[in-house]
Design a protein that fits this description.
about 140 residues; mainly beta; 10 strands; about 0% helix
C-alpha cells in the first residue's frame, strides 16, 4: 500500500570535476512511500523536465523526461546501464555507483560514467527533504 503526500525538496546534480550544476530544483514534489521504497516525482521548470526517482534501501532509479528521455539505475559498488533516448536514437552508457545513501530526509549519490571500463565523468546528486513548518506556531 502506497502512502501519497507532497513535500518540499531541494535537489542538486553536479559534475564533480568542473563543479558545474546540471540540475537544481527547489520546490514541491509528490512522494509515494511504502515499506519497500519511495517514489519522488516533480516537474522542473524552466527545463520542462518531468523527473521520477524510485529510491530503495540499496538501489535507485532515475527517469528524466524532457527533449530527451534518460533512465539511469544505481546500486552502490555495482556497474549498471543508463539509456538516453532522443530523436536521433538511443545511447547506452555504463554507470558505476561509488556511493549511495538513503535516509528518511536525504538521498546522496556519487557515480561515474564509464567508457570501455574507464571513468570519463563523475557526478554527484543530493536530495534533501525539507521539514514542513506549522504556520500556527
Amino acid at each position: 500500500m502506497w502512502n501519497t503526500m507532497k513535500k518540499k525538496i531541494s535537489m542538486i546534480q553536479k559534475h564533480c570535476e568542473s563543479g558545474e550544476i546540471l540540475l537544481k530544483y527547489e520546490g514541491e514534489a509528490q512522494f509515494e512511500e511504502s515499506g519497500k521504497g519511495t517514489v519522488i516525482r516533480f516537474c522542473h521548470r524552466p527545463a520542462s523536465a518531468d523527473v521520477e526517482i524510485r529510491a530503495y534501501l540499496d538501489a535507485m532509479f532515475l527517469t528524466n523526461q524532457s527533449e530527451t528521455k534518460s533512465r539511469l539505475s544505481f546500486r552502490e559498488g555495482h556497474e549498471t546501464r543508463a539509456h538516453l533516448e532522443s530523436e536521433f536514437g538511443t545511447i547506452s552508457l555504463q554507470v558505476r555507483t561509488r556511493k549511495y545513501e538513503k535516509t528518511q530526509d536525504r538521498i546522496y549519490l556519487h557515480y561515474a560514467i564509464l567508457d570501455n571500463g574507464r571513468v570519463c565523468d563523475t557526478f554527484e546528486l543530493k536530495i534533501n527533504v525539507k521539514e514542513e513548518r506549522d504556520e500556527s506556531d
